[in-house]
Amino acid sequence: MEEVVLGKIAKAEYGQSPNYSCMFGIHLSFEFPGGGIADGEKYLLNISPDFKWENEDEKHRMFMVQQEEINKVLTDAKVNYVSQLVNKPVEITINNRFFKKFRILTEVL
Questions:
Q1: How would residue 101 be classed by pLDDT, with cut points 50, 70 and 90?
Q2: Cα-trace Rg, the chain
Q3: Cβ atoms of 36 and 10 closer than 8 Å
Q4: Domain housing 11
Q5: How many domains, in total, are found in the chain?
Q6: DSSP H helical segments within the chain, as ranges?
Q7: Is the pTM of this model over 0.85?
């Protein structure tokens, strides 16, 4: 069952995953009335030299997609740094109690 809740970004970090050092990117956690949820490391990429990309073009494409997604979030939130995302209002989509996606509520900024 899918639900959409309003909340805010509780934590925003950019770097290695604390769970898997080969995973790199943005990590977000969200708060909303009655609960909270993390992004499930959805926005991380494997940077291990042992990871087998389909080819170098695919690797570069995925890194570019990641950076474009981060840039869109920063632009929508009207900030310059990932750390400035904390407390920004968001709409969070949750599917079967798992994080699916979010968007910055640009209409209230």
A1: very high
A2: 15
A3: yes
A4: 2-108
A5: 1
A6: 56-77
A7: yes
Residue 18's pLDDT is what?
87
pLDDT for the residue numbered 19? 86
Give residue 69's identity as a one-letter amino acid code: E
DSSP conformation letters of 90-109: EEEEEETTEEEEEEE-GGG-
pLDDT interval class at 16 (50, 70, 90) = very high
CB atoms within 10 A of CB 46: 16
CA separation for the pair 82, 105 (Å, rounded): 16
**CA 90/CA 103 separation, integer angstroms:** 6
Torsion sign, CA atoms 11, 81, 90, 69: negative
- CATH number for the domain including 46? 2.40.50
Take residue 17 and report the two structure tokens written for it.
């995953």
